[in-house]
């Protein structure tokens, strides 16, 4: 199990990232004391760091440069600063990738896996991006659903809806949870659009020989 360190001052985002990563079978730690961060990184020795730029009393870009003096741990910036110059500065300071908020969870997980793969940790990284439920495989790296030797591609909305269902396999996922999740990530979707997307996902499942994977629980939501 690979170990990811979250350096983020927003408590809600920090908790969301931690839960997402643990659901993807990563070990996680968070930084809550923003003094002497390089020493904390040394002590925790993570396999990858998710790093915000705007931190209390310290600039994430400078912090990345400081970490790079002694460690080659992969660093992914996850920040609200989205200009091309900010991204360039992040890469120039030693960052391995740069993702702007609000991030899309499946895409962030795929980018984490890609960075771990480039750093020579591909087996576990790839496994963490493949969710399996009832014989079906959801691949976050290439946005596909598969069963046996048959595979179908998913749109961005379909991928995110499937991620919500597969990551909570066996649970009833309320429609409101899925809609709120998509809305929070700036993908406009209303109640009717969700129904249309579920119908399309079911159609793609039939193309790979899977029937009745997604169960509708009236007045509650969906379950696989």
From TrEMBL:
Keywords: DNA-binding, Phosphoprotein, Transcription, Transcription regulation. Residues 128-224 bind DNA. Residues 128-224 form the OmpR/PhoB-type domain. Transmembrane segments: none annotated. Residues 3-116 form the Response regulatory domain. It comes from the Bacteria. Gene3D superfamilies: 3.40.50.2300, 6.10.250.690, Winged helix-like DNA-binding domain superfamily/Winged helix DNA-binding domain (1.10.10.10). The modification 4-aspartylphosphate is found at residue 52. May play the central regulatory role in sporulation. It may be an element of the effector pathway responsible for the activation of sporulation genes in response to nutritional stress. Spo0A may act in concert with spo0H (a sigma factor) to control the expression of some genes that are critical to the sporulation process. This is Stage 0 sporulation protein A homolog. It comes from Blautia parvula.
């Amino acid at each position: 199990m690979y170990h990811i360190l979250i350096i983020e001052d927003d408590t809600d985002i920090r908790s969301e990232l931690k839960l997402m990563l643990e659901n993807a079978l990563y070990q996680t730690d968070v930084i809550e004391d923003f003094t002497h961060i390089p020493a904390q990184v040394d002590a925790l020795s993570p396999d990858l760091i998710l790093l915000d730029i705007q931190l209390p009393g310290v600039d994430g870009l400078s912090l990345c440069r400081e970490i790079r003096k002694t460690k080659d741990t992969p660093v992914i910036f996850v920040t609200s600063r989205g200009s091309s110059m900010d991204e360039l500065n992040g890469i120039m300071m030693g960052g391995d990738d740069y993702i702007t908020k609000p991030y899309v969870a499946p895409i962030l997980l795929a980018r984490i896996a890609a960075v771990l793969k480039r750093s020579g940790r591909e087996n576990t990284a790839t496994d963490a991006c493949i969710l399996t439920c009832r014989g079906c495989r959801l691949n976050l790296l290439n946005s596909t659903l598969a069963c046996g030797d048959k595979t179908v591609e998913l749109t961005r909305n379909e991928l995110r809806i499937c991620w919500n269902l597969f990551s909570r396999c066996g649970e009833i996922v309320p429609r409101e949870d899925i809609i709120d999740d998509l809305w929070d990530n700036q993908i406009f979707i209303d109640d009717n659009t969700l129904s249309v997307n579920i119908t399309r996902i079911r159609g793609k499942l039939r193309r790979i020989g899977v029937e009745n994977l997604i169960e509708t629980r009236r007045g509650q939501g969906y379950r696989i």
